């Protein structure tokens, strides 16, 4: 029941629900197990060692955690997170087994110290580090934002269940006996991890995904810069002091109530049972506080005042211990230290971090968690050791009271600096106001002048921010005069901001302002008043209603209609199409936002004609705006969005698919699958994401598109399977790629068998190389969708890097991916490619070679079902009669010459193949596969030029890229009345690309030296190709750089000549 509701609430697919459910169960098991281990270790220690040993324990524990965590941080990046966590759990199970089965607990005080410290260390390694690293391996950042609260809830539930069950069991079982349950629970957690590993695929992460850093900041670096950070952001000092003092008072309080518990209860069994039941009750209270009380208090009081609550309750707990030391005071202190700390103070501490600039937040956390927190724990233990020598608990209590008073003062200044820092970051644009609005209830009146200045600044974004901040002032009406200056602005966002502000001011001021706006002669002011009435769901006053309607303004009439529809005083317009068409575009935009923001079902029906008849830009804005609303998943909105799937604009189609894909319904699967064939790549990508979100229910809708003759459709289907990420989807993807991977391995062997010196085999060599690149691109695209996006970077590194070590490292990274079956057939090719070795071999293509290898190679290529391999093999067939037919018979020779003309290569006789062959030799097109070159060839126009005929004249405007296919041409520049030849072009060279970017007249002549044949490409199509393959820019830059270098060298030679000197 819970999971089904969770699925509906979060809009999860079946596969996402299974993954989240598995991790919820794992979180419950791990936290429950560690909670039980900590409970047993604590109760056994208190019962047998006594509270007197707690200060020493508190001192040793953080030191051990620092040392072991430091070692663990060095190895965690080198091993699989799954294996590391499983080994930790296995080691814990063996240790717990030894405690009970081998009787280690009978060995005395030292074992009790080891047991307690071991349980605390394992809690840190397993829960705080191991589990959350494992979660990050299986969930994206966006998913973590959505699911973290549920994982925390499962953790709290595990802690509650473990302590409740332990409290009941310890009524009849001794703590030392219950230890035997821990190995079984650790084993259960290992089994759950094995299930996750089998059933779910993790998100592949490897070193190439991380941007290289020239300098990794250490703890020492952060500490050295800390004084400078404090001078700029004083809140850091108060947050540091808050962290430090919190740990001190927590240890003092924990020592106090632990000592009272140990003195009040007779034996280990009673103590353990009491601690377990207390832990269960405290967990329940913590859950109630964190889910019900704390959010309400933060909303009412704000973070600034909430910073005082926990220090004051801590002070009250120490006062209680001083005035009435006993079990009741100890219980209250325990409630404060556990429930109030984790259920209330922790949420406030997290919100305090909103006031730390994002660029230094990581640095500050390194100091806070890595230095100040452990030092605070060690210092707390040392203080307890010192206080222990001074006598009674009263000394510790007085010390706790003093530290609590200081803590309260720090809390007060933290609240003040929180607001100052937050305002600075918001006004500087470092953070978005919506991102930090939680806990920010009101602004002090001292900020009123600053808000007024923002409203009158003249900058749109500053004015919008001023409107948002104005609603948080104690009396927003104080800035009404400044807001009124914005009434005449026509910008839609500013107009919406004004209406939102007016809707949130006190009702008396709101009615007064509405009346003034209605009485205004300004049409825009009246429109704002009507929008305000619609937002507040109030009717239009009758005198104004008739007066405004009679004026005939389309927008005013439309607003009156909306207000009356909302208050059920009228019916829908009889002709919605005509009603939408008569509105000007800016009115359509405003009405779309007003209706969508209202989320009123009676008004939502008007959105469809408004969006359909609005200009395209407004349509896109309107549809995008719907995704930000709480009502975006209502039937009316989904029906409206679904109607845009056939829109002529690709951006509209993509946005519609994106909205529907958040919670895809089965009746939409055919339409989403059909979008995989869309002509626009962004639409195909959104369709892939939407179908993947639906999970394996959409799998059979995707499979048929794997057989599409269009490669872009196949790639979209591959993306869908990869994004699904389930074992079944991965298997289906591999099943599709397996034949190509097998043929790739064979093509590797073919390439090593080709005679490099025979022109008849050149096209087959080009076809094999093209086939390998296409398979590589498809496999790497598949791996990228499966979560290995770094493999694309690795491939680029292999292609472009000249450093052999870098290339080798990239191939090694590819080889280490978990999807090894996908990359295994590619490795021989990639390793040779990375090493820089040439595959060309000296092949003696005689009759014997043709019989044993050549003919077999041709037959395999003819059976490959790849058009270019087949064409290359057909061209290579020309070599067979020349090699095999050695007869002197004149008749046989005559027939052979007729069938296979001497020197008559098929690729030279066929114009299409000849052009493709030439394009493969043009460096500018080396990033395109043969299929893409075939499409480019269809748009090329052939022209012929006689010797000395001008192809391009200096000063002319040409809008084509030229490719020379035969003959030679010269680039000539007139200098001082003389013609200077800058370059000579031959077959395969190109020119004219620079003009296509700057649209300037040609600065040189291009003249045919011999009979020339050229192919020209329209500028628009050329720019489309550049957009499709940005690497073309790199090639153009290389060519320009080489030309510039040559020109400079020639200039230097000219300047040094004796004639000029």
Automatic annotation (TrEMBL):
Key words of the record: Antenna complex, Membrane, Phycobilisome, Transmembrane, Transmembrane helix
Molecular functions per Gene Ontology: DNA-binding transcription factor activity; transmembrane transporter activity
CC terms in the record's Gene Ontology section: cytosol; phycobilisome
Domain Cyclic nucleotide-binding: 924-1026
Residue ranges of the TM segments: 20-44, 56-77, 84-103, 109-135, 147-170, 176-196, 233-252, 272-297, 309-332
Classification via InterPro entries: ARM-like, ARM-type_fold, cNMP-bd_dom, cNMP-bd_dom_sf, Env_Response_Regulators, MFS, MFS_trans_sf, RmlC-like_jellyroll
SUPFAM superfamilies in the record: ARM repeat (SSF48371), cAMP-binding domain-like (SSF51206), MFS general substrate transporter (SSF103473)
Tagged with keyword Transmembrane helix: yes
Top-level taxon of origin: Bacteria
Keyword Cytoplasm: no
Stated name of the protein: Cyclic nucleotide-binding domain-containing protein
Native species: Roseofilum reptotaenium AO1-A
